[in-house]
Amino acid sequence: MLQAGAAVLGRKIMAFTQPGECVGVMMPNANAAAVTFFATQAAGRVVAMLNYTAGAANLRSACLAAKVKTVLTSRAFVEKAKLEAIVAALGADVAIHYLEDTRKSVTTFDRLRGLLEAGRQLAPRAPDDPAVVLFTSGSEGAPKGVVLSHRNLLSNIAQINARYDITPADIVFNVLPVFHSFGLTGGMLLPLLSGMKLFLYPSPLHYRQIPELIYGTNATVLFGTDTFLAGYARSANPYDFRSLRYIVAGAERVREETRKTYMEKFGLRIMEGYGVTETAPVLAVNSPMFNRNGTVGRLMPGVEYKLETVPGIDEGGRLIVRGPNIMLGYYRADNPGELEETPQGWHDTGDICVVDPMTFVTIRGRAKRFAKIAGEMVSLTAVEQMTSDLWPDAAPAVISVPDARKGERLVMATTRVGATRAEAQAHMKAKGATELMMPSEVIVVDALPLLGSGKTDYVELNRLIRAQLGLTTTN
What is the pTM of this model? Predict the structure, then answer.
């Protein structure tokens, strides 16, 4: 039914778009999202997955970067998600096509032809042609359009299959949004192209309902982030997860408390992985055979790497990778539709990592998430990790701001009412932190801003804290 529906819709899409054109798709995690994705592929168009949580300005910038002229969405979804204002803003630049209207135009002939064309490519495409454009999370800067080829996506799926013994008997429950690479490749394409049953759920934030649905569907594979998994653990009955074989986490570091809870309450190991949109996205992952806590697993088969020395960093270096899953390049809003290719196929992840002889990767932090304090490099990620168990239900986030005396200083934000700098300092001293790692102040906020993937939105947090401190906002 998926293939037949994709063939029918693919023919309709061909009527109002051009071969190779980027077509925007703005859909929730639902069956219609999968049908629309494969229909657009069958039609020989490039799918530009739009993050409807990103706001009108970012969406318009995304459409400009990829030269999107048409956006496919659902009227029911727009109304339910209250996206009318965003769609109206997008409508000034692109044509909005509602799937409900397309469905009304489907005839009996269309359905019969769809059955005959099910699983067939309706327009020619090559393995190295662009397949999808995904937009980086923007957690530390303006989003970019990441152009992935058919080869990139299929290679990453093959790499995942090489590490896990998943079979058509497995059932995947996917709560991660398909407009992010983890949700798209791992949560949707991997199961569908590997013959598994897939359940798509529209929001990862329904902490009470999701464990019950995992129980009801007998799911065996769950993908998530630390934030989401911790939320499910608080609500779940131990029996809710009885059928799960694999829980794979990415997008953010898995805290030790989360790992411990899943082992003690559910008897399940969380397999932590590491990926970036530019690598389709899985770059490294722990597996049942090769699992090492504290790392994000071994690099995927076929991935080459090199570590670039970073001044002030004694251990590890900036991770640069090359392989079959590495993107074709970027689309940027300041040069619309022009592919900025990766140099000799190498991609700079921007992450400071240590890679051991067995290619287990340990992430020390983002290159941008280091502050230079009194001439020394201090990892903001390390400070967050060190204080993650101080207020377990209100794990802090840290940014750096200018300081006239030391160059930069650290500011910690948390939702913990009554949190103080003295508490943070005492906790960090007990763990052996240096004076330079201590936050200069702790600010209590109503909520830490999050991206759709569950990551902390450091751009927005930076803006909020700097505004509160009366400082100029920067990226």
Answer: 0.81
